[in-house]
Amino acid sequence: STSSRFPLYEAALRLLKERPLQGAGLGSDAVRTAVTDLNLYHGKAPFVHSHNVYLQVWAETGLFGLLALIGTVGWTLQKAARTVFGKQGSHSVRMLVIGGVSALIGIMVCGIADFIWHYPRVMLVFWFVFALAIAGIRLALREDRQREREAKRGRL
User: Fold this and answer.
1) In whole angstroms, what is the distance from residue 139 CA to residue 118 CA?
2) Sequence-separated (6 or more) residues with CB below 8 Å from residue 141
3) Is the N or C terminus of the chain more exposed, i.e. has fewer CB atoms within 10 Å?
4) Is the pLDDT of residue 5 over 90?
């Protein structure tokens, strides 16, 4: 299974050489059509997708789409780290953030070897967990602001 992915990776990389900035368009079908039309894949099994979320997103949306994905996930991880290590919010909210971010990291690591969003239910779970992590970060900030307001009122 692993060795069969190298021709898929090669085809995606060839497509990226052809269309590095604009990509082929949204969806696996757009990438598959572009790979077929440009005769970039010569493997035995049919080309369905690139079996790598980063290559696939780049192949679909171009370099800016890939940078947007990495930037968005990276920003979320950075904010989560500040929330958890800065001990913002309550313990239970920090645990929510840790759980969400752990799941995001696990999914993104798995995405190195597979296109995790090929199945809509996995994509839905990814964005749901992403939203939970963001909600936890915002809730922690809200709790801290509320605590500061209460402390300020107590001093007056």
Assistant:
1) 31
2) 83, 88, 89
3) C
4) no
